[in-house]
Design goal:
single chain; 395 residues; alpha+beta; Jelly Rolls; Phage tail protein beta-alpha-beta fold; 18-stranded mixed β-sheet; 3-stranded mixed β-sheet
């Protein structure tokens, strides 16, 4: 059990204790740190602690590092939102407290902020329960082959396909039937709809995972001297090494050239910015006459025709591939664009909320109401309205 789970476990035990019992030596803690008195007093409010404990389990994150990062971001948000709490948090951050005591201070700080913002997780949960019917995306894709009039709807029970002598599902469960009259080396298109994702192993062994609302164009067999594909949307590439045959990904805004490496490309046509993020190996990213060579941990960003190189957070870039949404100081408009693709819904955000910063992490496979839990914790004044597959977000 990681450090944050230990903290929550302590709170749970505290809630089950009889009146007068405590897990914290109050006199010792307050003698050393008198400014914690009002925060420690919150442990006496069992109803609020129960609500916060329930909320924790609804938005529980996958790894200790990500939990610690999100806690820090929430505390940063608290410093900006609440002047009175800001003074207490500033003092907390310089306390020389070790072990579990330090963790309890951080956790209580977060709880105090949530209580101070008057968030009632139980009431919020009831208010947004109708959104539980909006289900997450799943394996879904269509395969179009040059020379065939119809496209092939791929099985949602399968995670991907393999292009080899035959076209078959990744688990070897069956061949995909194609017309015998098509060209020997046709161009193919693998397309995921909104609310879909799919994997493909290309003829050279390169593995590609497509995110929702994306399209990959590729030949059935690559040339001996180069391997070229085209991408719209987002995909993660694990490129097989082939000496003398660079692998090139073409997007609307930039080209990526590699020999063998792992990287992520985000290039949606409806987004102003596009990114190439390198996980391992090296890549060369080109736009017009400008070329950038990346090392692991870097990404290129193309914005308004200009390309720059910056550091990136690997957890955030690959969250979608690992089955998560991870938002770290990302504005509401950008967050809702991602969610609309995955849940296959239309989301309309009030103009005064588009720049609101969002923090949190939630499984991509949770229903939509779990995502709204995070938003309500950040700002409990936000309201939601659903009309069919359209969701309005407003104050």
């Amino acid at each position: 059990m990681n450090k944050i789970d230990n903290i929550v476990s302590l709170i749970r035990k505290h809630l089950s204790m009889k009146k007068g019992e405590t897990l914290i030596d109050r006199s010792e803690v307050l003698t050393q740190h008198p400014d914690l008195e009002k925060i420690v007093d919150r442990l006496d409010d069992r109803q609020k602690l129960l609500a916060e404990y329930a909320t924790y389990h609804r938005i529980r994150m996958g790894s200790q590092d990500r939990q610690q990062q999100m806690l820090q971001d929430i505390l940063t948000r608290a410093r900006r939102e609440d002047d009175r709490y800001r003074r207490r948090v500033r003092r907390l951050t310089v306390l020389k407290v070790s072990g579990v005591a330090a963790s309890i201070c951080i956790c209580l700080g977060m709880l105090y902020w949530q209580m101070g913002m008057h968030v009632d997780p139980i009431d919020n949960r009831h208010a947004i329960s109708e959104f539980a019917e909006i289900k997450p995306g799943h394996n879904s894709a269509n395969l179009k082959i040059q020379g065939m009039q119809r496209s092939i709807e791929l099985k949602s029970s399968e995670a991907g396909i393999v292009i080899d002598q035959h076209i078959q599902y990744a688990d070897g469960g069956g061949l995909i039937q194609v017309d015998e009259k098509i060209a020997a080396n046709p161009i193919m298109e693998l397309t995921t709809p909104k609310g879909g994702e799919y994997q493909i192993t290309l003829s050279d062994g390169t593995q590609v995972t497509l995110n929702a609302d994306s399209k990959l164009i590729y030949p059935r067999s690559f040339r001996a001297d180069q391997r070229v594909v085209e991408l719209t949307g987002e995909a993660y590439f694990e490129v097989a090494k082939r000496k003398g045959a660079p692998f090139i990904v073409k997007t609307l805004q930039q080209d990526v050239q590699v020999l063998g490496t792992h990287f992520n490309v985000n290039a949606y046509a409806d987004e102003a910015r596009s990114y190439v993020s390198l996980i391992e190996g090296s890549v060369k990213v080109s736009k017009a006459n400008l070329t950038k060579l990346l090392i692991p941990g870097q990404q290129t960003m193309v914005d308004k025709g200009n390309m720059s190189v910056q550091k990136m957070n690997v957890d955030e870039v690959l969250a979608w591939k690992r089955g998560e949404f991870m938002f770290n100081n990302e504005n509401m408009e950008s967050v809702m664009l991602k969610l609309s693709r995955w849940y296959n819904i239309e989301i309309i955000v009030s103009p005064d909320l588009k720049e609101l910063s969002i923090w949190g992490s939630v499984s991509r496979y949770d229903s939509f109401d779990k995502v709204l839990d995070i938003i309500k914790i950040i700002n409990d004044k936000i309201k939601f309205r659903k009309e069919g597959r359209r969701v309005y977000i407003m104050k």
